Amino acid sequence: MRILRSNRHKYCADGSFMKEFILDTEVTPEFLDFLKHYGSLEMLSGLGEGFYKFEKTDCFSIKGFLNESSFEVRFKKEVMEFTSDFLYSMLYCYRDGKPDFNTLNRRNEALMERVRARLHGNKS
Predict the structure, then answer these.
(1) Is 109 helix (H, G, I), strand (E, B) or coil?
(2) Radius of gyration (Cα) for the chain, nearest Å?
(3) Cβ-proximal residues to 71 (8 Å cutoff; 6+ apart), any chain
(4) Of the residues 35, 91, 94, 110, which has the fewest C-beta atoms closer than 10 A?
């Protein structure tokens, strides 16, 4: 899965940064199952057919509709330079429905160490 382009970059009132991403393929149920390994996923039936929300705590959230080739991402301002790279890695590691969990799990561990240090300081 690749990002073709991103649109509507804007800062939100809470300091987060929002982007809309256009993908080279539609978001599938299999891709959402993949996302669940890295955060929480909620299907919100009351907001439209196939509406979902993914949350990676302290990092970013994704909102979109199943079977559409775009979604909206809201990045936490303080760690955006780390977490935007991880989002790109998530999409890259989900190739043709065959996720590379080994690579992404290593990147996830490194990311979360950096995020915890930035947001909560070094607590040893």
Answers:
(1) helix
(2) 14
(3) 20, 21, 23, 27, 62, 63, 64
(4) 110
